[in-house]
Design goal:
- This protein is an alpha/beta fold.
- The chain has one domain: Rossmann fold, CATH 3.40.50.
- It is 34% helix and 20% strand.
- It is built from eleven helices and nine strands.
- The chain has a nine-stranded mixed sheet with strand order 1-2-3-5-4-6-7-8-9, sandwiched between helices.
- Strand 1 and strand 2 form a beta hairpin.
- Helix 4 crosses helix 5.
């Protein structure tokens, strides 16, 4: 069923930015501290059984210098430098297998898939631990890990890893650093949106049903998916709510959208109870750069699926020719 505002109201929905004091200084300090660590991007060729693709096991230094894993794939025999799509992952899963990521190499681009630290799943296994422990009790999942301070919050680390993934992609000799696109769905969309606001050099952003945007509104209208972790935490830790919300403001995608200038393609499903459509529309409306939005009226958190991939290929081809 439709779980949010009517479409005509969604097209007008533009809430105030939840920008905390010192937002820019916080992220400037975070990235400055991260850049003190050598990126040390390593690409090790592997035989993944795909005769038409070159495949590499990737490692680079993310937040805190922690080693982040990934995959890098490119069309075999292609003459570089190529555009590259940096792919971020949805909640609860890892980089999976190289054969899960042939879309962009088949379209003639390279792709770097960033593993999500500390996340794995039965169908999407991950290979990157998160060496930073929580500083307080939480509920299962990542939403409450380090939640009581911006410096310790899990998504500070994940967003920083996402920035470094762009740098790692640009370090590969097959990649044109001026033609890097960031892409992701749900949590991956949150990462793509954050990077679009933090790294002005990226060429484009593909942001599907983004998570962690307009967070305070999301908590009012849904308990599905990862937002339910926050609801369960707040039900018990009643005295921590305001402190936790202040932390969440530091990772809210609306604040990154207002700073992003790169062209972007968004998608929203009107029956999405995991990332309610009003939160996706809010990110789209605040996005400062050139933008398009695909609205899927009878779809939920899967968004446009293969139809959205078709739109993304079209968008990238128009961008790069």
């Amino acid at each position: 069923m439709f779980i949010d505002l009517p479409l005509d109201e969604l097209r007008r929905y533009r809430p105030p930015l939840p920008e905390p004091p010192g937002f820019d200084a916080f992220w400037h300090r975070t990235l400055t501290e991260t850049h003190a660590h050598d990126l040390d991007a390593r690409f090790t060729a592997v035989d993944a059984g795909m005769a038409l693709l070159d495949t590499y096991d990737v490692e680079f230094a993310g937040f805190g210098g922690h080693r982040i894993r990934g995959w890098f794939l490119a069309p075999r025999g292609a003459e570089g430098p190529l555009p590259c799509v940096v792919q971020y992952l949805g909640y609860g899963g890892g980089r999976a297998h190289p054969h899960d990521w042939p879309l962009w190499p088949c379209a003639g681009l390279a792709t770097l898939v960033m593993d999500a630290r500390g996340q794995s799943g039965p169908d999407r296994p991950g290979d990157t631990p998160d060496p930073v422990g929580a500083d307080h009790p939480g509920v299962p999942g990542k939403m409450t890990q380090g939640l009581l301070a911006p410096d310790t919050y899990y998504y500070r680390r994940l967003y920083t890893d996402a920035v470094r993934a762009v740098e790692a992609a640009g370090a590969h000799p097959m990649v044109d650093p001026a033609r890097i696109v960031v892409s992701g769905r749900s949590q991956g969309g949150a990462c793509a949106l954050a990077v679009a606001g933090l790294v002005p050099e990226v060429a484009a952003a593909l942001i599907d049903v983004p998570f962690l945007t307009d967070i305070r509104r999301a908590l009012e209208v849904t308990e599905d998916g990862p937002y339910g972790e926050l609801a369960r935490y707040f039900a018990g830790e009643r005295l921590d709510i305001d402190r936790a919300l202040a932390t969440l403001d530091h990772v809210d995608g609306l604040n990154f959208a207002a700073r992003a200038q790169t062209p972007a393609l968004f998608s929203t499903g009107l029956r999405d109870a995991v990332t309610p459509p009003s939160t996706g529309f809010a990110a789209y409306h605040h996005y400062a750069g050139p933008k398009e939005q695909q609205v899927w009226r009878f779809n939920g958190h899967e968004g446009g699926g293969g139809h959205q991939r078709t739109e993304q290929i079209r968008f990238v081809r128009e961008l790069f020719g």
